[in-house]
Amino acid sequence: MPEKLRTPLYEEHLRLAARMVPFAGWEMPLLYRGIIPEHLHTREKVSIFDICHMGEFEVSGPSAEADLEKLLTQSVAAIAEGACAYGYLLAEDGGTLDDLICYRFGGGKFWLVVNAATAAADAVWIKSRLSPTTVFSDLSAATAKLDIQGPGAREAVESALGRKLPDLEYFHFCAIEIAGAAGLLSRTGYTGEFGYELYFPADRAAAFWKKLIAPGVILPAGLGARDTLRVEMGFSLYGHELSRKTTPAGAARGRFIDLNKNFTGKEAVLRDLENPAAGKLVGLRLEGRMAARADDLILEDGREAGKVTSGLFSPSLNVAVALGYVRRPAAVIGRKLDIIARGRKLQAEIVKLPFYKEGTARR
Length: 363
Known about the structure:
Elements: E1 5-6, H1 10-15, E2 19-23, E3 26-31, H2 35-44, E4 47-50, E5 55-60, H3 64-71, E6 84-90, E7 96-104, E8 109-114, H4 119-127, E9 135-138, E10 143-149, H5 153-161, E11 173-178, E12 181-186, E13 195-201, H6 205-213, E14 219-220, H7 223-232, H8 249-252, H9 266-274, E15 279-286, E16 297-300, E17 303-314, E18 319-327, E19 336-341, E20 344-351
Parallel strand pairs: 1-3, 4-14
Antiparallel strand pairs: 2-3, 4-10, 5-8, 5-9, 6-7, 7-8, 10-13, 11-12, 12-13, 15-18, 15-20, 16-17, 16-19, 17-18, 19-20
Helix pairs in contact: 2-7
C-alpha cells in the first residue's frame, strides 16, 4: 500500500485532536469537535478548512487561452482578468475527468485548481493536449490552500492579520501578501457562505494557520462538515455526482457549459442534453432524519427512477436530504419518490436546490 500523503498542517491537526481519515490518497481531518458543531459554526460564524491537498496548475503562453478553450466546458474567453469560472474537463467521449476552477491572470497566464484524486491524471491529460507555445507548470506541491468560510470571514481574517482586505466580487481574486509572502486571495468557496480561498507558499502554511486560529474566532472544520455544507447547497462532488462514466449534462443543469464553442466531449454533452431518458441531478428532501446513501435506489410508483449520489442529515434543516440522478420525465419539483435505504423504504420529495437558502456567498 502506498504511504498516504500529508499536508503541511498534519502536525497541527494532531495537536488539535482531529480525527484523521484517508481521502484521495491523503491523510485528512474528518472532524475536530464534531461534524454538526463545525457545520453550524460555519453557517453562523466562520471556520477554516485545510484544502492543501488540492492541485494547482499554471498554464501560460500565447496559445494558452485557445488551448484551454478547447479543453474546458466554460467560456475561457469570457473570464475577465482577475476573475475565475467553474467548469469541467472532459474526455473525448464526454466522460467527466474533473470539475475545476479556471483563474485568469494578465499576460496570458491561467491557473486551474483541480481535485486531489484526479490531479495526476489531469496533468497528463492537459499536457498532452497543449500547443508547443503553451507552458504547463504543476504548482501543487509548493502551494498551500486554506478556505475561510462563514458570514464573519472578512472581519475575522482582518482582525487576525491586523489589516483590511480588498473588496472582491464573487468569483474574483487578487494578489495579496500573506504571512510575509506573496499569495492569492479568492472570493470563492464550497459552503454557500461568504468566504475566501487563500493560496500561499506551502512552507508558510503552519505559521499562517496558527495566526488565523489564535484569536479563537476562526475554528477549524474537517471534511465531514465540508461535505454537509456542500450537499445543503447542491454542489457536486467528483466521484459522487460527477464521474468518468457520465457527462456533466445532468449535473450542470444548463450551467457551466458553453455550447457556442467547440470543446472536447461536446457531442456527448449535446446527446445527453437532448436525451429525455438521460438522468438529471435533483435535490431530494426526505421525511425523517434517516439518511439515504450513495447508490441507494430511487423509485417512482415502484419502478426504478434513478440512484442517490450523496445523502446525509442536514444540520441546518434538521432533516435528511440527498442528491441523486432521476429520469428526466420524473425530475419535477414536488414529485414524490421512494428511496430504498438499508432495506427500508424512505419517502422523499424533489425540491428546488439549494436545500439551504440563507447562504450569502454572493454578498
